[in-house]
From TrEMBL:
The chain crosses the membrane at residues 44-61. This is Ancillary SecYEG translocon subunit/Cell division coordinator CpoB TPR domain-containing protein. It holds the Pfam family TPR_21. Keywords: Membrane, Transmembrane, Transmembrane helix. It comes from Desulfobulbus oralis. The keyword Membrane applies. The keyword Transmembrane helix applies. InterPro entries: SecYEG/CpoB_TPR, TPR-like_helical_dom_sf.
Length: 232
């Protein structure tokens, strides 16, 4: 039998001894996952690009916010140390750096200036505006509540003052002062029983050993005052 003529055949390359692995193979991913990633690589790169752009935008926002906080703090410091034009500088701070902690402090300082100028209504409005913006457990809350209670008490708005003081009473460490102020208001209103109850709260809240605090003159005065009230 004649041997087949191989002269017309195209010579074939021998199979490679190894298959060159790609990057995906280096991660030992399942073949199905590799095929999917390669088939959808354009869409996946688009998603990756959008995610990267979002990260860069957020980083830019954080940088801008940090810049505003810094500039607001500098403006507040300059206004507080200004020998003149303090109100104008504080107003400008509010306009330029609103919604920053420095702006809140600027509003408090403007309220204090109104209070000093005898503009009670304006001071109350400013303090109330600050109170409405404060987050829960803000360190400014006791200060603002105390200011509002004092201003309302001074103009004999008893219910408003008591409302602020009751809220102040619920803040840790502020109960004694709130109880004392409420006792004073009740006594001014002629409500003896309520006043004595508040004074008693104050005395109980300030009951610590003499070795730790010495003689608390304010507490001693209230205790003596309670005895006089009860004797009447």
């Amino acid at each position: 039998m004649a041997e087949p003529n191989s002269a017309g055949r195209t010579p074939q390359e021998p199979p490679p001894l190894y298959h060159e692995a790609g990057l995906l193979e280096e991660f030992n991913l399942p073949p199905k996952v590799i095929r999917y990633l390669r088939a959808h690589q354009r869409q996946l790169w688009t998603i990756f690009g959008l995610a990267l752009a979002l990260v860069l935008v957020l980083a830019g926002i954080d940088s801008y916010r940090g810049h505003r906080l810094k500039k607001g703090a500098e403006a507040l410091d300059a206004a507080l140390h200004a020998e003149s034009g303090q109100r104008e500088q504080l107003e400008k701070l509010l306009a330029d750096y609103g919604a920053t902690p420095s702006a809140l402090w600027a509003e408090v300082e403007l309220a204090r200036l109104d209070e000093q100028a005898g503009k009670t209504e304006a001071a109350v409005s400013r303090y109330q505006a600050v109170l409405d913006k404060l987050k829960r457990d803000s360190k400014l809350e006791p200060l603002v509540l105390g200011k509002l209670a004092g201003l309302e008490e001074n103009r004999k708005h008893w219910d408003a003052a008591l409302g602020y003081l009751k809220r102040l009473e619920g803040i840790a460490g502020r109960a004694p002062d709130a109880a004392l102020a409420m006792g004073r208001i009740y006594e001014t209103q002629g409500k003896k029983a309520e006043a004595l109850a508040m004074y008693k709260k104050f005395v109980e809240a300030t009951a610590i050993s003499l070795e730790e605090s010495g003689v608390d003159q304010r507490r001693q005065m209230i205790m003596s005052h309670m005895e006089l009230m009860q004797a009447r």
